[in-house]
Each structure stands twice: as structure tokens, then as C-alpha cells.
What we know:
Shape: globular
Number of domains: 1
Strand order of the largest sheet: 1-11-10-4-9-8-7-12
Order of helices and strands: HEEEEHEEEHHHEHEHEEHE
Bound molecules: adenosine-5'-triphosphate
Amino acid sequence: MFRRLIERMRGLRQAAPYLLRPANVNADRAKISIAQLDHHYANKVVALKDVNLNVRSGEFVCLLGPSGCGKSTLLYALAGHVAPTGGSVAIDGKPIHGPGPDRLLMFQEAALFPWLTVRGNITFALGARGVPRNERRERADTFIQRVRLEGFADTLPHQLSGGMKMRASLARALAVDPTVLLMDEPFGALDAQTRVHMQEMLQAIWLRSGKTVVFVTHDVQEALMLGTRVVLMAPRPGRVVEDLEIHLPMPRSLEDPSLDAMARDIRHRLRASEGAALEAPPVEPQQRRTRTPSSVPRPSIVTGR
Ligand SMILES: Nc1ncnc2c1ncn2[C@@H]1O[C@H](COP(=O)(O)OP(=O)(O)OP(=O)(O)O)[C@@H](O)[C@H]1O
């Protein structure tokens, strides 16, 4: 047991300095720049306090932290569905004042139109984005192939498994080609095995597309599997406590022992920040737990139109 403890400590020491390093992105070179962002809900809950975050083009940034630390609020502020009470959010230097076609938000539910086939769901979204009719089918089929749903293009959503529905939703999101993909625990409702398949698929697609992704998760392993960066958040008030670059080559595997060592390190950091939060004086008089700010629509994909 003592030996195991020493090995664990050694793992921690190895993981921290080499594989997780503080991120340092200059606002001038950022695709997304968030400065001094505050958000107080009407019931005075401080969902975000002084959040500063710069994301380079093509990065895959995971927002990780316990329930209530403001991950979703931050994502919705990026999507333009929450108007922050203070600070600024900009994409390519332009301040965000609402939803836009450059960003696309995906939720846990696939939210496909049940009366449309997989291809129909995608061509519909392409039509809504103004893609000419004669290009829609080919583009839809390209992305159906990319998420490995060939053979299911003419299938209705109720005939698909949960993982397949999520793949169709992902194909639709990628087909409309936003420059920034915002994902709120998209695989949270899937079983463990499907979830790993979806992570591998998303990573392969992301490596190929080079899209800027901001991905909310509770799951440390998921953040380390997917992210180029992991932003650790803490509650009461919701804030960023650490912003770390993950220096582990891709594609990654959950079996990689360095990933385990890093996960232990991250859990340790999260516990330390939660401990600090518990010691801090309360700032949320009537905290109300909800998954989603009430102003945010609930379909799986918000196209920004
Ligand atoms: N519409 C709302 N009105 C009032 N308070 C809200 C609203 N939406 C969220 N909150 C509160 O804001 C804080 C942050 O919520 P948020 O959903 O952003 O956190 P989260 O980290 O995404 O949590 P989870 O992981 O559980 O989804 C929480 O205390 C929550 O109760």
C-alpha cells in the first residue's frame, strides 16, 4: 500500500510539470476573448465573477468544474444567449451582443426534428443558413459519412439509438460550418461505451476540421481526452481557478497512463479550489440550482439565426 502511494505521488509529480502547463494566450491573438466577465442572475446568484479567458483559433478548450460553477453560463454568454452583467466577450475582436451564425451551441439532447430523416434534419439546417438547395444534399451526405451514419441517411430519429442520434446532431452541427462550436455536456446522457466512441469520433473530426471548440464537462477524463486546454472553474462565486494547456499528443487513448496521472492531478487541484470556495464567505443569498438559465432555448442545436 505504501509503495502504491509512492507511485501515485510520483505520477502526480511527473504529470504536473510536463503535461499540464499554465496557458498564456494574448488577447490580441485570440479568436475568443473574454475579459472581466461577471454575471449575476436576477435572484442575485453570482454565476460568474471576473472571468478572463483567451482562446486561440483551432483550440479545443474544456471547461471543467463542479455543478454550479458557471460553466453553462459562460458557454451561453459566448453563444450570446446570456447578456452578461459586466465585462466583455468578443470573437475575432468583435463584441458579442447576441447569437450569430459564427457560433453554434449543442446540448445533451440531440433534438432532431422527429418528422425529418437524418438527411432531412441536416438539409433543413443548411437551408436555414442560406445554403443553395442544390448543394444541401451533397453536403449533408459528406457529414453523414464523417460521423459514420452511412446507410441511415433516410432513417427517422426514433429509429436511431441515443449515440446515433447524437452523431446525427453532430453531423448537422458540422455541416452548417460555424467557426466556433460550443458544446454543453453533449455526451452526458450516453452510456459509458458510447460516450468513449463519441469522444474518439469528435477528436478525429476536430483534428481534421481545426474548429475552435469550447466544451463543457464534469468529467475529468473526458476533458483530458479531448482538450488542448482545460479551464478549471470553482463555484460561489463562479470563476476560473486555473487555465492549463494539455501537452499530450493526439489522438489520445483513455488507456494512456499519463492521462490517469493527469486526472489525479486535476482532481487534486479541483478539490483544493473547492475547499477554498467553502471557506469563502457566502455571496449567493438564495442560490437556486437549475441546469439551464431560463432565458436559454432548450433544443440541442441553436443555429444562431
Ligand atoms: N436562470 C437562472 N436563474 C438564477 N440562477 C441561475 C440560473 N441559471 C443558473 N443559475 C445559477 O447560476 C450558477 C451557475 O449555474 P450554471 O448552470 O452556469 O453552472 P454549471 O457549472 O454549468 O452547473 P452544472 O454543471 O450543474 O450544469 C448556479 O448557482 C445556478 O444555480
